[in-house]
Amino acid sequence: EVTSSLMSKPTLRRERAGRYKDDDDEDVATAALAVMGPPAICVVMEIPDEDEAQPEDIQIHKDEVQMIVGRLRSLNLNVEKYESSDKKFLYLKVSSNEAVLKYEAESCRYRCKLKNEYGGAMCGYSQVATVDIFVFELL
Question: What is the pTM assigned to this prediction?
Answer without folding.
Answer: 0.55
